[in-house]
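Duplicate of #3305? Posting structure anyway:
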């Protein structure tokens, strides 16, 4: 009798809320493909990506809506140990903060590179956390990833190890299935169909910053940021965007603008093409370069 009574509320609860929801942090060293994986999982380009390290600077949330429930993925800046500069410190702090109050941690590794000090630091951070952990061995589309066995040897630290490719999307479904095994029933975290927490100005600024990352070399991508000040839908159907590239000194301003303005012109053109693709319409981009030695203070 006692058994039956205590069982009834549980059954009612399951009938009403049959949805599993939770937050999942995508964590790892720089350049392993965290942002590429987020985009692949969500099915839209939310986060910018580049072959250069330290591309992601802020946590970005991307939502997977599924008949089983909702997974909110949190993309994070890559963990970086070789540099003690202000940007690296702020990026590491932001990444580690994203491990708090979440349901599953996805540690992404790159089997084409040897286990480095960043991976070792991550192993020791994760060993102290009891949250369910999944190691994702990414870039499995590459021919014979040399360091695969070394990462596989570390598999015991994790609840599961999944090999996939964020670039091609191969086996990302296995990752989603495994995450759902570790999530609990709960209320929806996002409205139906909403894919991210980013506002449009920040998202567009990121898309412009990606073009700067892809085109500029050495230290230049790291001394700048992009701010979008205005987005207006004009009567002629064109989307008008006013954006500023902030650089830390006059010397870098000259590099970004380039000889005869050629640099900024090319960046503007490729950014406009990308913005037209994501908005599926015509875009007018008003892009200027300004010196602001204090822009980095705006980072957390
Ligand atoms: N071949 C291959 N390349 C990939 C894959 N995933 C990512 N990449 C490439 O790896 C590079 C880094 O990708 P990102 O997604 O920017 O890496 P990240 O971990 O977010 O990097 P940070 O934000 O700098 O920490 C880019 O050149 C991607 O195209 C993959 O599955 N296969
Ligand atoms: Mg990234």
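Output from current build:
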């Amino acid at each position: 009798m006692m058994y039956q009574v205590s069982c009834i509320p549980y059954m009612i609860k399951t009938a009403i809320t049959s949805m599993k929801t939770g937050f999942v942090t995508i964590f790892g060293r720089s350049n392993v493909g965290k942002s590429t994986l987020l985009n692949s999982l969500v099915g839209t380009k939310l986060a910018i990506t580049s072959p250069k390290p330290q591309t992601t600077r802020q946590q970005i949330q991307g939502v997977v809506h599924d008949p089983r429930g909702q997974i909110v993925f949190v993309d994070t800046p890559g963990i970086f140990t070789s540099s003690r500069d202000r940007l690296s410190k702020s990026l590491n702090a932001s990444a580690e903060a994203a491990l708090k109050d979440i349901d599953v941690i996805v540690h992404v590794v790159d089997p084409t590179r040897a286990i480095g000090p960043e991976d070792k630091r991550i192993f020791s951070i994760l060993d102290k956390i009891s949250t369910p952990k999944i190691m994702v061995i990414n870039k499995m589309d590459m021919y014979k990833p040399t360091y695969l066995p070394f990462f596989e040897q570390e598999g015991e630290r994790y609840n599961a190890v999944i090999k996939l490719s964020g670039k091609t999307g191969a086996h990302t479904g296995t990752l989603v299935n495994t995450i759902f095994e570790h999530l609990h029933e709960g209320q929806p975290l996002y409205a139906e169909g909403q894919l991210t927490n980013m506002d449009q100005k920040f998202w567009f600024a990121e898309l412009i910053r990606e073009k700067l990352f892809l085109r500029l070399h050495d230290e230049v991508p790291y001394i700048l940021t992009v701010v979008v000040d205005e987005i207006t839908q004009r009567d002629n159907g064109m989307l008008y965007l006013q954006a500023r590239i902030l650089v830390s000194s006059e010397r870098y301003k000259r590099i970004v603008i380039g000889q005869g303005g050629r640099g900024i012109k090319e960046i503007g053109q490729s950014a406009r093409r990308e913005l037209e693709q994501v908005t599926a319409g015509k875009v007018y981009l008003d892009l200027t370069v300004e010196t602001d030695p204090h822009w980095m203070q705006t980072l957390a």
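Confirmed duplicate; merging threads. Strands lie at 20-27, 60-66, 69-75, 104-109, 133-137, 160-163, 184-185, 224-233, 239-247, 283-291. Residues 1-15 have pLDDT under 50 and may be disordered.
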